[in-house]
UniProtKB/TrEMBL annotation:
InterPro entries to which the protein is assigned, alphabetical: CarD-like/TRCF_RID, CarD-like/TRCF_RID_sf, CarD-like_C, CarD-like_regulator, CarD_C
Stated name of the protein: CarD family transcriptional regulator
One record GO biological process: rRNA transcription
Domain called CarD-like/TRCF RNAP-interacting: residue spans: 1-113
Superkingdom as given in the UniProt entry: Bacteria
Organism of provenance: Roseburia hominis
Family annotation (PANTHER family): RNA POLYMERASE-BINDING TRANSCRIPTION FACTOR CARD, TRANSCRIPTION FACTOR YDEB-RELATED
SUPFAM superfamilies from the UniProt entry: CarD-like
Amino acid sequence: MFEIGEYIVYGVKGVCRIEDITHIDISGADKDRLYYVLAPVGDGSGRIYAPTDNQKITMRKVISREEADQLIEDMPKIEQLWVPDDRQREARYKEAMNTCDYRAWVSIVKTLYIRKQERTAQGKKITALDERYMRTAENELYSELSLTLGIPKDEMEQYIRERLTQ
């Protein structure tokens, strides 16, 4: 069980801070069940009520500084998530995002960055599907790394590039 004040990654909602662990009095909610009261980072007014015993949505601790440094070092070795069929590709991206696995997010970003470069070289634009998943994977990855490394999220891509070229 997580503690109040901890930062976790909660499903596709991303990085959240645990504000409370309590029983809630909301219509339709089990009053005997304990819930995390989560505040999504970057959304000052939003709140999520997640059962502490939830088995459907992945919850995990935010990556440690050592894990973040290792992840950035390993990025060149992380394989792409290439799927040639458009319909299957979306299903694989969605599945990878739902795992809350930061290595899967890197895989998606790498794949879509290369795909975008290839399409641009052919005079084509990136597809809306690819754009959506690239933005989502980057947002999840950069939000978590930003919190852990203490670097503003909008500077994270540049920070990673600089680290990889050293």
